[in-house]
Design a protein that fits this description.
The complex is a heterotrimer of chains A (about 250), B (about 260) and C (about 260).
Chain A: E1 2-3, E2 6-7, H1 13-26, H2 36-46, H3 50-83, H4 85-100, H5 107-114, H6 118-142, H7 146-154, H8 159-196, H9 201-211, H10 215-247
Antiparallel strand pairs in A: 1-2
Helix pairs in contact in A: 2-10, 3-4, 3-6, 3-8, 3-9, 4-6, 5-6, 6-8, 8-9, 8-10, 9-10
Chain B: H1 2-32, H2 42-55, H3 57-89, H4 91-106, H5 113-120, H6 124-148, H7 152-160, H8 165-202, H9 207-217, H10 221-249
Helix pairs in contact in B: 2-10, 3-4, 3-6, 3-8, 3-9, 4-6, 5-6, 6-8, 7-8, 8-9, 8-10, 9-10
Chain C: E1 16-27, E2 30-41, E3 45-49, H1 56-64, E4 71-76, E5 79-80, E6 88-91, H2 103-113, H3 118-131, H4 147-160, E7 165-169, H5 177-193, E8 197-202, H6 205-211, E9 214-219, E10 224-229, H7 246-259
Parallel strand pairs in C: 3-8, 3-9, 6-7, 7-8
Antiparallel strand pairs in C: 1-2, 1-4, 4-5, 9-10
The chains are: A mainly alpha (about 250), B mainly alpha (about 260), C alpha/beta (about 260).
Bound molecules: adenosine-5'-diphosphate and magnesium ion.
Chain lengths: ~250, ~260, ~260
């Protein structure tokens, strides 16, 4: 968007929306929408409280653990599927099914199997993230340029060398692309898990605030959550762009 | 020769069956051990599913579950495609609205559910809203992106043969964007399923969510697993169907044929 | 197709169909064209030849009315160009076919945009589909055709609107060498039989010398017309013998000598 010869930065319109929010809040149009300024003040007052920090810590913990398992299990599985046709044909239908399945429906099962706690939330997070990671790692390995593989062979690379020096790096952009989408899904997964198992993390906090109609508190937490999620996804997208810049030179 | 030609299809079909057999077999065995008191066997679950279907409970439950889903998807598709087209065509609209949908796409929108319940109560409206907020961003962003990425050569071709702005939009941009718009819709439906089930589990147990919650509370685990199995199956089958339609409808549309 | 191609020798200066006067075009800081002046005689084929990035496409799109020059003016039959017009038709390097439309609809698309009725435009399109040798493929879709066939569709589309000036941007660069040679022969008979003005962009010296009445050599940084070459006798030769003709070989050599310093 160019105004009077100036290029307005990409997300600058959010400032306008912030202003709209403030005005709507001040106009007392709705009890449920307090002015942004009030939300921000509240944010600063609750950010230091033990309840908020506990929620943040628990969420971060579940999220990091969930993503960790998704990557550690997902990437090797994907690479294996890309390299071995039999394994691929056995697993691919299930990966595709779980990729599009409404995984929310599985949370009640996790709750009865693993209890109403951290474990279930971590598994939910992993389940949200892992399928796309597997799929991308698989595609990454499968799309490796034949001539690159043959080049390695013709120079006498051992299978291990070929793997660590060629396959992994050649598939890396796709793998990281999958991890990026997986991480964004994991954010959604960790929140959905906490909402359904509402005694942990932000789930508990939401319950508390909404039961007491603490609207500014509620919005403050939403603001933090959305801002964190957005920043995370932008940082990952930026990293991926950097990487695809290098990989396009290969 | 015909046999040789059919062999690869047979192989993949066989492997799919084998794969299903392995997973369901593992489920059966794990249920028999049992790994947990709350882990019924595959056959127990399937017979519970059969009972639910015979009694008709399942179908009335699906009616309740699919109602907010269908309404929500219809609203999201209508508004989402319109807004997406507008964003893709107008740079100031893009500047104004894109950031909202980009943030929505990255954000865990499920966190809005408690708020929606406070505002709209626990009825159908809230559930439709949940489906909408889950499904809308991807529909908008796909539509806008597809419009923005219309191959310039096609637009220039239209212009050089004297198409006016409306003709460029209706005869070139929209047809060129439709495969991506359609796959945005498919992804929207996928997100809508997540939203619809989340709404039933979180807001008020109705439909399939009610079967899940109720049978969990009375420890009727086979019925609970059966309900979950059926909703996942339904979602996957429906999304696969959409994908098939997409492939046949837009055959050749997306293939890079600019240079062989 | 060993038809002898004898063109009546024009008396005096040929009529000018298109003239580009003092054209400059900047993309931001990039000076793509600078003060370029060039005339295109009616009924002849003029090639724009030059290394890539020298502004050939830019010039062609300015003539087509798809781009506005930063300064300067293009005239077609003495009338200034302000945008795309019915007197010019474009053949695109990457074909620019609608992937969702059949060959018939693609070829008729230019007429469709001009508001010609369905049955009438389909009749016209069908005729040109036959003319370019695609009879029987009316119902096919672009992805079912080879690169060469796709460009024939693009050519038929441009011919069917019956414009006086045909603008072709490296039309044969995306097809294989054999198809390309066949295209070049067909192009020669097209120039012969249709009373149209052709502006033909290429980066192949041989192709330019083979098909052109007039070759404008463009040199980059900033782009300008460095030479205009008219292979005078070649057009009266039999198509099969052109590539063996001493004038053909000499012209190719001469152009190469002009261009070689600009190739890194
Ligand atoms: N849309 C554009 N924006 C900026 N620079 C451009 C654009 N199109 C072309 N150019 C530049 O203008 C010059 C001429 O381009 P072009 O006309 O495409 O050359 P050619 O067709 O001879 O290869 C090149 O240096 C190219 O990089
Ligand atoms: Mg060019």
């Amino acid at each position: 968007m160019v105004v009077f010869g100036y290029r307005l930065p990409g997300m600058s319109s959010l400032l306008i929306w912030a202003l709209v929010w403030e005005l709507v809040g001040r106009s007392d149009m709705s009890f449920f929408v307090p002015p942004l300024s009030e939300v921000v003040t509240t944010l600063f007052s609750i950010i230091g409280t033990a309840a908020f920090q506990k929620a943040l810590y628990e969420t971060a913990y579940a999220f990091v653990a969930g993503v960790f398992f998704a990557v550690v299990i997902g990437v090797p599985t994907g690479i294996l599927m890309g390299k071995n046709r039999l394994i691929d044909e056995l697993l691919l239908p299930w990966v595709n099914i779980f990729l599009s399945a409404p995984l929310t429906a599985l949370v009640p099962v996790l709750m009865v199997l693993f209890g109403f706690g951290m474990k279930s939330i971590i598994i939910t997070t992993t389940l949200f993230a892992i399928w796309i990671i597997i799929l991308n790692a698989r595609v990454g390995v499968m799309q490796i340029n034949r001539s690159l593989v043959e080049m390695a062979r013709s120079f006498g690379a051992t299978p291990w060398d070929a793997f660590t020096k060629v396959y992994f790096w050649a598939a890396l952009p796709e793998i990281l692309g999958g991890v990026r989408i997986g991480v964004i899904r994991a954010v959604k997964g960790v929140i959905i898990g906490q909402l359904l198992i509402s005694i942990v993390g932000f789930g508990a906090l939401f319950e508390l605030y909404s039961n007491n109609f603490l609207m500014a508190h509620f919005w403050a937490v939403l603001l933090v959550l959305f801002a964190l999620a957005f920043t995370l996804s932008e940082v990952l997208a930026w990293m991926e762009r950097r990487l695809s810049y290098y990989s396009s030179k290969r | 020769m015909p046999l040789l030609q059919r062999l690869p299809i047979r192989r993949s079909l066989l492997l799919k069956l084998l794969s299903a057999l392995l997973v369901f077999g593992a489920w059966e065995i794990a249920g028999r051990v049992p790994v947990s008191y709350a882990f019924p066997t595959f056959f127990e679950s399937m017979s519970a599913l059969w009972t639910l279907a015979i009694e008709g409970t399942l179908f009335s439950a699906y009616y309740d579950t699919l109602k907010p889903l269908v309404i929500g998807i219809a609203i999201s598709a209508f508004i989402g495609i319109a807004v997406g087209l507008w964003i893709g065509l107008s740079s100031w609209f893009d500047w104004l609205f894109s950031p909202i949908f980009i943030v929505m796409q990255a954000a865990p929108l499920a966190a809005l559910i408690p708020l929606l319940v406070m505002i709209y109560g626990i009825g159908l409206t809230s559930k439709v809203f949940v489906v909408c907020i889950m499904a809308m961003p991807v529909i908008v962003l796909n539509t806008a992106g597809a419009v923005r990425n219309t191959p310039t050569n096609l637009v220039e071709m239209g212009q050089s043969f004297l198409a006016n702005r409306v003709e460029v939009i209706t005869k070139i941009i929209i047809p060129a964007a439709s495969p991506v718009i359609f796959s945005g819709l498919r992804l929207g439906v996928s997100a809508g399923f997540i939203g619809a089930i989340l709404a039933e589990l979180k807001i008020t147990p109705t439909g399939v969510g009610d079967i899940i919650s109720y049978s969990r509370s009375v420890a009727d685990y086979p019925s609970m697993y059966a309900a979950i199995f059926s909703i996942i199956l339904l979602a996957v089958l429906f999304l696969n169907l959409l994908e098939r339609i997409e492939v046949t409808l837009f055959e050749g549309n997306d293939r890079g044929y600019a240079s062989d | 197709m060993a038809m002898p191609q004898i063109k009546p020798v024009e008396s005096g200066a040929p009529e000018i169909a298109v003239s580009a006067k003092n054209i400059s075009k900047n993309y931001g800081d990039v000076e793509a064209l600078k003060d370029l002046t060039l005339e295109f005689p009616k009924g002849q084929l003029t090639s724009l030849l030059g290394p890539s990035g020298c502004g050939k496409t830019t010039l062609l799109k300015i003539i087509a009315g798809l781009l506005e020059p930063t300064s300067g003016i293009v005239e077609v039959n003495g009338k200034a160009v302000t945008g795309p017009g019915p007197d010019r038709a474009f053949v695109f390097q990457d074909f620019a076919l609608l992937p969702w439309a059949s060959v018939l609809r693609n070829v008729a698309f230019g007429l469709e945009l001009r508001g010609v009725g369905k049955s009438e435009r389909e009749d016209i399109a069908a005729k040109y589909i036959k003319d370019v040798g695609l009879g029987g493929f009316e119902g096919s879709f672009p992805h079912e055709l080879s690169g060469g066939m796709r460009q024939r569709v693009g050519l038929a589309r441009a011919l069917s609107v019956d414009a006086e000036v045909l603008l072709m941007d490296e039309p044969f660069s995306a097809v294989d060498e054999q198809t390309r040679r066949k295209f070049q022969e067909d192009l020669l008979s097209l120039v012969q039989n249709e009373n149209k003005t052709f502006i033909f962009v290429t980066h192949s010296i041989e192709e330019a010398v083979y098909v052109s009445d007039q070759i404008a050599i463009l040199l980059p940084r900033p782009s300008r017309v460095s030479d205009i070459i008219r292979p005078s006798d070649l057009r009266t030769k039999d198509v099969d013998n052109i590539r063996r003709d001493p004038e053909y070989l000499d012209t190719v050599d001469r152009i190469w000598a002009l261009l070689r310093t600009y190739v890194e």
